[in-house]
Amino acid sequence: MLPLPLLALTLFGALCAFMPRALAQSGGETPVEPKDVRAWLVRIHDAASRRNFEGTFVVSAGGVVSSARIAHFCEGKNQYERIDSLDGEPRQVFRYNDVVHTLWPKARVALIEQRDQLSSFPALLRDDDNRIAEFYELRHQGSDRIAGHEASVLLLRPRDALRYGYRLWAERVSGLLLRADVLGERGRVLETSAFSAVDIGVRPRPVSVLRPMKKLDGFRVVRHAMIPTDLESEGWTLRERVPGFRQVSCVKRPMEGAHEVGQQGVGAPTALQTIFSDGLTYVSVFIEPFDAARHAPATLAPTGATQTLMARHGDWWITVVGDVPVATLKAFADALARKR
User: Fold this and answer.
1) In this model, does residue 335 exceed pLDDT 50?
2) 324: number of Cβ within 10 Å
3) Which of 233, 235, 240 is nearest to 332 (CA)?
4) 255-259 long-range Cβ contacts below 8 angstroms, 24+ apart
5) Which residues are CB-neighbours of 33 under 8 A, at least 6 positions away?
6) How far apart are CA 84 and CA 90, in angstroms?
7) Could you read off the pLDDT of 69-110 as tens digits, one per residue?
8) Count of CB atoms within 10 A of residue 27's CB?
9) What share of residues in the chain are helix, strand, coil (percent, to 5)?
10) Which helix (H) or strand (E) holds 7?
11) How far apart are alpha carbons 180 and 194 in whole angstroms?
12) Which of 87, 153, 278, 334 has the greatest number of beta carbons closer than 10 A?
């Protein structure tokens, strides 16, 4: 799954068995010029942030299927988002621009964070370069129908072994991403997610997002402050850059579980999180002091397309996670060095 929870657009796979026949009927593949790759991806990216839509979103990864009800509204420069989980323990996520509230109604806990929109897919680098075409080849695979909408089908093939491939279904008129498959070696589907039903162009209802964010009576409110920083200032460096990836964020944040034992505020233990992107996906590197009581032996844990590598680094515990092959995580872990 994509690293952050908001609009983790990576989509449903129950129809995968029918796709080869459907694509053959649509006329096969058509290469897309490198200069047009970014234009396609920008259209998908902008549709997710500038369109009003509501729908049911289903994710299948690692043998687990989960679903959520998603609503996104845009009024002027303001964005509003609401995600209600439909499986397992009830959870609600509300976003107003960069302020995010995550509510667990059963436990009566509300987590408040301020973060940018690094969760959107495709990630896209924040400048105007076209480096994505250096690492991915884009092909148009005709058209298909998803959740009642006509969609263009795009295949992104990685040009090296450090990335996964993607098959994307973008709604023909708006460009909204309706479905996406994450593809491993030989095109094997690792994770798939999709709207099973979606209405595009709905009337915006900001109050459905703002009202629950203000009504927190009876909830234990936990505030996670993200403190901007950089690797160098924190005494770390990457000896070698992983091809295609650039640092897009670096913050100090409360360590996992700190709020559960009352360790908040000044002096609370923090972890360093640095996020890297190749313009399409993300890799997060977490660094925290090693604690033998908390940290298990080094492990590699896959969940669908998401790989997690955890290992000791001297007096530190390193966690590298992302929707990338294991070799990419190891490249980051091996390049990480403590400055003298």
Assistant:
1) yes
2) 26
3) 240
4) 255/288, 259/111, 259/222, 259/224
5) none
6) 8
7) 999 999 999 999 999 999 999 999 999 999 999 999 999 999
8) 11
9) 15, 45, 40
10) none
11) 7
12) 278
